[in-house]
Design brief:
Blueprint: H1 5-12, H2 23-40, H3 51-71, H4 75-103, H5 106-130, H6 141-154, H7 161-166, H8 170-181, H9 187-198, H10 211-229, H11 232-237, H12 239-245, H13 251-271, H14 278-301, H15 304-307, H16 312-326, H17 328-334, H18 336-339, H19 345-373, H20 376-397, H21 404-410, H22 420-431
Length: 432
Amino acid sequence: MLGWPSPTYPYLLQSTSVIPISMNQSAMIAGFFMLGAILTTPLSCRYHLGPKYGIWIGMALMTIGWIIMWYSEDVIGLLCSRFTVGLGSGYGLGQVKGYISDLCEPQLAQFLNKQLNFYGLFGILVTFMAGPFLNFRKFPYVPVITCLIVLLVIMFLPCTPKDFVKRNKMDEAATLLDYLRGKRDHSNELKKIQNELIDKKINFFSLLKIANLRRKFLKFILLVFLQQFSGGPTTIVYCQLIFTMSDCPYPEYCAILYAVTFFISNIYGTFYASKLNKKFVLIFSIVTTAFMLISQIAVLYFEINKKYWSFTSLIVMLLFITFYCVGVGNTAIAYVPEWFPEQYKVGMVNTFSISFYAFAIIATKVFQVLITAYPLYIGFCLFLFCDLVNLIFVIIFVKKKSSEFDNYKQTNSVYFWNSKRGNEIEKHINNR
């Protein structure tokens, strides 16, 4: 559903389409998916029926959403479809993360949770590749069949050890842990799971009471805002239209190449660039992205595609999305484990998802208004301005990695660090 607008909008914007839409409605239709995801993301980390059945509920909502798309007769149907799929996506994704965390040891869970980005991007890529060659009514067949298969497979997944412990089936929980961890004494792990179920969850908003964390929270939100307004996600939504308005030949194939580049660059940014110095990578990404945006503005303003080489805009856009994904598109979320204590990690990941979708709605609408009322290059001027603001913000306010002692201090009461014991621990860490 994230990739659906790009290949579908050029058809729906025609007056002869089965559901004619206006350019003004396009941003609203795109935003309803994100609105659904925003509403259910806060619920996705809650333990209701257990993550296995939570995943099933999320998939069921997505299946219903695509069936609505299948039978849509007007714009209301499109809105309901995208909103329902957004509800399922926002809730189901958090349940998938919970399922992985409950089954796997921490390092493996972290690696597998990163894989979720890969599958999401792969879905966008498949949509870009299949969308131009399937008509509006036939396209929903693919996701509906996929969703139904996944719904069936989910029923054969094992429950997690936490599910068994919650039902007081300790023997089944121990048997499952034998299978997952190897045969050994699991009494400590079972006790830990029991404590997790009993212990009252930390109030996420208590983070805002600590001045240091409050500053980092605001920096994080601003990073996500500038990430969205620097153009990456918006160009994915309007990808094929951008190439059509840029006078690129074969815009549907240009969009597919753009999606492939987006896919590869995101994988590199997620799995490799995130291991490097984050601030350096971010500044490099912002500067190169700004240069590509200036180039794209020049190409559009001087009509270089028409006068010289018709694929100039394509090359510039491919370089833009490459540099964007390496740093700007992936660095904000990478700051969560560095800036915030472990007990706030899940809350901050959800905060990222909510703010990511919320700012995407705004950025998409603003871009749509600009390219409707003005020439296309004005929309890219917005991206350039936000990119330059991002550069200034990162240089001034984003520091290098916090010291071990600073991270340790965040997790504890402020009063403790005024004590003699706090000074002794600081001296010990520095000596080490």
